[in-house]
Amino acid sequence: MARRGEFDLVRTRLVPLTRNHKAALGLNDDAAVLDPPAGCELVLACDTLVAGVHFLQTDPPEVAAMRAMRSNLSDLAAMGADPLGYLSAIAWPRDIAETWQDRFLAAWAGDQERFGCVLLGGDTTSTPGPLTVTLTLIGTVPDGRAVTRAGARAGEDVWVSGSIGDAALGLAAAQDEAGAPAALRHRYECPEPRLALGRALRGLATAAIDVSDGLVADARHLAGASGVAMEIDAEAVPLSADAGTWLESAGERGLVRLLTAGDDYELLFTAPAECRGEIDALAGRAGVPLTRIGHAGEGEGVRLRDRSGRPVEAGAGGFTHF
Description:
Phosphoribosyl-aminoimidazole Synthetase, Chain A, domain 2
């Protein structure tokens, strides 16, 4: 049986992902033509995921697909944007099975339906190396309402959504690490972009970032962009019940591991102290817990402290490629 060619893949598997959006032009051209909605600005986010770096070589196609799509959607969530569409550039290993491709793209189709975006264009090629997926997500936000990293001010509260460290333990479970809770594998395999929360934070949060590299590292990014220091109470950071149980036998370095591991895709944000009641109420509407874990102060960087106020050494604070 002849192997499916590039243009057959585009025609039979990728064109349906456009959902006939006019900007995609049926994938017949080398570029899309997008007309932004009236009164909105475009928000663009681009990430590359490489097999063996951002997901396991042994992960099923659905996991690879969801991690690629949802990590990019999380960047839109952090800016308060609504997803509109995306461009994809995929370098497929030359020996990849067509059934693997089909399952990968079917998972994308499911996420498109759930999160409200469509394929608008891109490229597909082969590679002698590992699977490499680059997505450029396109979102919209009302004029002047995007939430950036640069608005935090000294004296404001620091908040985080959900729970931290679950994805690291989920990955550890996927790698058969002794003691890692198997119940958390889903947090690694299918991260949840906090899009509804991001929208709700427009005009409320002064700065925001998604926790992708690690809580401490991303707090450092937020602090640097805003020109403030982040004072974080390590023991106030919310943990799931499974992570808490794991931590009982892991000790202080276990807590540092959870606070510096990435892939949680929760939102870390700042807001004035007078907004505490509104943020508490927002947690119920958004369907995700929101926890105050510290405050912004004068200076720079991140100061992580334990319950007694003693510094906690966190090293680099999270993942870095170089």
